[in-house]
Structure formats: C-alpha cells, structure tokens
C-alpha cells in the first residue's frame, strides 16, 4: 500500500514509533490507519524512535510510505512532477527554469518538449511516462491512466494512493496547459475547411485541465502565462505558505474551468453556424474582463467592461477593440456614448462627423471637407455638444485637430468647446499630438470602423433579448411618394440623410435636416408630437425648406405632428406608413404642398 503526505511550511509531525512525516491535514487519517499518536516536531525534520533526524524537507520532495507494518514503515522521497503541454509558449523558458531550480521533474509533449529541451532544461516525454506512443496524428497523447491517474488521485485517500501505486503511477502535482488556437484558426481569412476546424478542437488539453482543476486540493493547474510568476512564488518556491498556495490553486481552478467554458462556447458557436439555422437552442457568450470601472451609470453602482470573445466578434471592430491614445480612463457612460457616436458616424458613407450626448446624436453633418462637417455638427446644437462625444469616419489630420482644439462655441464665440471623447478610425502623427494638447483628460480613441452589424444582445431581468443589429441602410429602402408634390433630387438626398440619422435616435424619434446636416432632433418623448415640437425648436429659422424623418408612423396629422411640421416650413416628410390614419397625413401634406414619402420600414430604438 502507499500513502502520501504533503509538506507544509508551518506544521509537520512524526509518529512516535515510526519514521513518518505527515502534514497536519493528514494527522487524523494517519492516526486512524496506524493506531498511533503523534506529537509536534520542528518543521522540516523527521525523527526515528531515538530522536535522530532521518532527513529534512528537500525542495519539491514529499515522503511516500511504500509499505506499512505494525512495527515499521519504509520511507522514500518522491520528486514533484509538472506536466506541461502548450500551444501558446510565451514565457515558457522562465517557467521551466523556475521549476527545474526547485527540483521538479518536467513531463511534456511534442513541440513543447522540444522548446524545453532547447532552453537547456531536462524534460521527460509523455510517452516515456505512459509507455505508449503518440497515435492517431496526435489525437491520443495524454489520454492515459498514467497521466490522469497521477492528476486525479486524492493524496489523502489511501484507496486512491494504493490504486495508483499498484499500477506504478506517480502523482502529478502541476499541470500547465493551454489549448489549440481554435478561435484564431476558424476566423482566419480565407476561411479554413470544415475539417481543419474540427482538427483544431482540443480534446486532451481540456481533459487534463479539468482533471487538475477538480483535484485542486492536491494539484495546481495553470492555463495563462500571466500566472507563471505568481505560481513560482506561491506554490513552487521552497517555504511557500501552505494557505496561500491552497488559495492560489483554487483561483487557478476557477480560471481553468472558465478557460474551458469559453473554449467550448466558441466550438459550439462555430458548429451551430455550420449545421444550425435561426437562434441557437442554447448560447454561451465568452467574455473577458478588460477593465474594472470606477463606477457604473452612477457612483453608487459597481461596474466593469468586458470584451466579447465570440467568433462573430473576431473581426468586427468598434469601440470594444479601440486603442485609447490619451486621456482619463474610460467610464461606463463613456463606453455607451462612444459606441452610439461611432456606430452612427460609421453608418454614413461620405466623410462625416457625429456628436452624441447621452447616446443621442445632437449634431450630424456630411461634407467632403471633414473640418467643415465638424463645424456644422457643432452648430446643430452647441449647448448639447458641449461635454459630448465627437466621432469621425475618416482619419483626423493636424488641421482638423487644431480646429477641434480651438473651436469656440457658436453661442458666444468665446467659450472653447469641451468634449469627453474624440473617436476616429485613425490619426496622423501631427493630428494626434495636436489633439493631445487640448486637455490631459480628453480621451482620444482609435477604432476600426463599425456600422450597426452583427448580433445585438440586451439584458432584461432574468433573461436576454437577441436580435440582428439594425443595419438597414436608406439605399436598401424603397421610398414611395404618396403626395401630390414630388421631391427634388436634393430633397431625396436629404430624406436619405435624415432617415439614416433617425434610426440612431431614441424613440419617439424625429430628425430635421437640410443640405447634408442635422438641424434638430427630438428624442425619447412618450408621444411623437412632442418630439416634433422639440426638433422644430432646435432647427429654429433653418427649418424653412428642410426635410423631416420619423422613426415610426404618425398616429395623428391634423393639428398634430404632420400639420405642425408643415406650418413650420418643412417641405418634405418621410415616415414608415401603416397607420389607420395614413390618408390624413397625405391630405394634410397636399393642403400645404409638402412632399410625403413612406418607407415601409420603421426604426424604433429603445
């Protein structure tokens, strides 16, 4: 039979009549088995009946009882063992040299073993442990009792230890494994063949990781190179604190299961994309913590920002994958506003600027001269633009950066405009340096362009809503003229501009535009007529000759939304249509000589 005892830095005991050292958490089990009493000794010693020291706690060696009789035990020292099998070999040399210095025997596979040998560290190949060659093109390497028995055996369970001893299996104390690069493989361009994807589904790796994580009381598992230094300090080093080591093993076990969970979710997502249709019956979204935020929408709310590791997000771009070049750390509200601004501006094909406040666009303009587009976007609503987010769909050069830095509010021509964030797909070196001079707090973000696209998930209490992003563009919409008056070519262009903008405004949403610029918008009102009033008020005198877009149909027209717009000077209106009173809107527009179009689609945004 065989028993294993583990060394701790704080407590060791030996049996009165036997030269056996046991860890404090094995005392009761050992007493019951041997029928002996124990007494405390100085850590690091084992004494015989006469009190002579038999040995000290050598680094990474643990005593194993090879045989026990009523009179004596035969004691040997077992070297601690680490099994390493990696796809990501970052910092591997640091790890293996640290393990070797502490006396660990290192077991490894294939390319990992070759890398370890190259680092000058002794390594035993896994086939020398299993006595079985790698087979099936590498599909079977570590799926063997000599590996999993050594990982899963509970050291305090005498039946477990007898079982592995009977099969000449030695314990494995550390498992360092990461998995095949499945996500990178299946999202590559060009798309790999289905068979290539299947071959990159790791089997042996997750099996070892899960086994080691389950046996966290005795085995440490590490899946991330970022944890190697802490591993060497808290678990591997001689004299490591037992309590700290135990807590580290638990934390690494959590990380290991999460690692496998994220990996499996990506495999599942990929397979469903190949064999399924419609919403997946079950779905797991792999998220990685990117930043712990100071607070949420309000200071009393805790918050964090996670990046989505789903396959569908691999090449999509947007705010989540942006580079922060400058400024204060991003806040919860910053992320929401920056995302709203950037998705809106990236929805426009022409060079454009969008300014957002509280996720609603308050300034939008399109011009071949991006600097002029910026000026027009600010002038749409300078009060709301102050403290907002400025987004561009073209790189920012030095001239534009100077204008952003020095531009004065059109309200008084004195107050320098203040912004929380500037976001663009790029910056010239001179433009970036100039923009940094505006404020040490201005957040300057660079992001891959992303118009609304992909899958949209939104949480409700106890569940999630899933829908396709609202990616419908005006070019895909058939606008039908239902009035007597017909639109000019310029009005049609303005209709498309306003219609593209209105889908980014919170419902009930109204936008008024002219000549490729937003004049005013009404958002978030419980009734549509109030949104119309707000948009007209914001447009002021420029409303004459403008166009108006409504995200949904007009329930009333006479003395309501449509007539108010006509009386204010709006010359063309577009709405989805579909109301029981659609004819009232037609009749009202005909009375005032206003163009009325229907789109057949709506753009609710809640």
UniProtKB/TrEMBL annotation:
<dbReference type="GO" id="GO:0005829">
    <property type="term" value="C:cytosol"/>
</dbReference>
<comment type="pathway">
    <text>Purine metabolism; IMP biosynthesis via de novo pathway; 5-formamido-1-(5-phospho-D-ribosyl)imidazole-4-carboxamide from 5-amino-1-(5-phospho-D-ribosyl)imidazole-4-carboxamide (10-formyl THF route): step 1/1.</text>
</comment>
<dbReference type="InterPro" id="IPR011607">
    <property type="entry name" value="MGS-like_dom"/>
</dbReference>
<comment type="similarity">
    <text>Belongs to the PurH family.</text>
</comment>
<dbReference type="GO" id="GO:0004643">
    <property type="term" value="F:phosphoribosylaminoimidazolecarboxamide formyltransferase activity"/>
</dbReference>
<dbReference type="InterPro" id="IPR036914">
    <property type="entry name" value="MGS-like_dom_sf"/>
</dbReference>
<keyword id="KW-0658">Purine biosynthesis</keyword>
<keyword id="KW-0378">Hydrolase</keyword>
<dbReference type="GO" id="GO:0003937">
    <property type="term" value="F:IMP cyclohydrolase activity"/>
</dbReference>
<dbReference type="Pfam" id="PF01808">
    <property type="entry name" value="AICARFT_IMPCHas"/>
</dbReference>
<protein>
    <recommendedName>
        <fullName>MGS-like domain-containing protein</fullName>
    </recommendedName>
</protein>
<dbReference type="InterPro" id="IPR024051">
    <property type="entry name" value="AICAR_Tfase_dup_dom_sf"/>
</dbReference>
<feature type="domain" description="MGS-like">
    <location>
        <begin position="73"/>
        <end position="223"/>
    </location>
</feature>
<keyword id="KW-0511">Multifunctional enzyme</keyword>
<comment type="pathway">
    <text>Purine metabolism; IMP biosynthesis via de novo pathway; IMP from 5-formamido-1-(5-phospho-D-ribosyl)imidazole-4-carboxamide: step 1/1.</text>
</comment>
<dbReference type="Pfam" id="PF02142">
    <property type="entry name" value="MGS"/>
</dbReference>
<dbReference type="InterPro" id="IPR002695">
    <property type="entry name" value="PurH-like"/>
</dbReference>
<dbReference type="GO" id="GO:0006189">
    <property type="term" value="P:'de novo' IMP biosynthetic process"/>
</dbReference>
<dbReference type="InterPro" id="IPR016193">
    <property type="entry name" value="Cytidine_deaminase-like"/>
</dbReference>
<keyword id="KW-0808">Transferase</keyword>
